[in-house]
Design brief:
Layout lengths: L1 E9 L4 H18 L3 E8 L6 E8 L2 H9 L1 H10 L3 E10 L3
Helix pairs in contact: 1-3
């Protein structure tokens, strides 16, 4: 299993626009992608500009398929202007 974490630092005032788009992307990822096992969206209570994702995929191929999905491409285009920084890390899940 492949774990992907993503930390977004949003531009000031962008959270209210970003979160509905992010939640829809997460919902579609889990419902449309057989290799996407989990997609959690987490927001800090004390820092409005920071959003953290925890995603679990069957393998690297499933994550690559996610990155090619139409809903993901549309999401990325929509939120680009709202983001000041994005950090992606991948991990192998240990048994």
């Amino acid at each position: 299993m492949l774990v992907v974490t993503v930390t977004f630092i949003l531009k000031p005032g962008a959270r209210d626009k970003f979160l509905p788009l992010m939640m829809e992307n997460a919902r579609l990822s889990v419902s449309l992608e057989p290799g996407c096992r989990q997609f959690d969206v987490c927001a800090r209570h004390d820092v409005d500009e920071e959003v953290f994702l925890y995603e679990v995929y069957d393998n690297e191929d499933a994550f690559s398929a996610h990155l090619a999905m139409q809903h993901y491409l549309e999401f990325t285009e929509s939120v680009g202007p709202l983001i000041s920084e994005k950090t992606v890390k991948t991990y192998s899940m240990l048994d």
